[in-house]
Amino acid sequence: QVQLVESGGGLVQAGGSLRLSCAASASGLTFSSYTMAWFRQAPAKEREIVAAINWSGETSYYVDSVEGRFTISRDIPKNTIYLQMNSLKPEDTAVYYCAAQWPGSFVPKIRMDEYDYWGQGTQVTVSS
Fold it and tell me: What pLDDT digit, counting tens, does each position of 33-76 carry?
């Protein structure tokens, strides 16, 4: 069982930046074998993929709405992934969730049902 704990959410003005972190832990965890992703869910909307990164960190995916503004990265020794969010917009307001998929794949998965473990989420609110 993998535990994922997100942090770094908060309230920011439009145009600002936030960095989300997701720390993974488990007995015998081999963090580098997991594909990792960030999803988000806004009020009254379905949860959607934001970004994903493959097991080695070589390949990533971004939803069109965040391409060029958000960056996903992973620090394998620290068992942590990050989501650097720049030029934030009010429409980025949502609860952001970290997710893990095992075994990891070279091309990161982007569907919710392809992920095995989820964090509790962290709220990001962008004011206009």
Answer: 899 999 999 999 999 999 999 988 889 999 999 999 999 999 98
Distance CA(96)–CA(116), nearest Å, equals 16
Percent of the chain at pLDDT exceeding 90: 81
Distance CA 1, CA 3 (A): 7
Residue located via tokens 């994903």: 52
Pairing of strands 122-127, 10-13: parallel
- Residue 20 C-beta-side C-alpha neighbours within 13 Å: 33
CB-based contact 29:2 (threshold 8 Å): yes
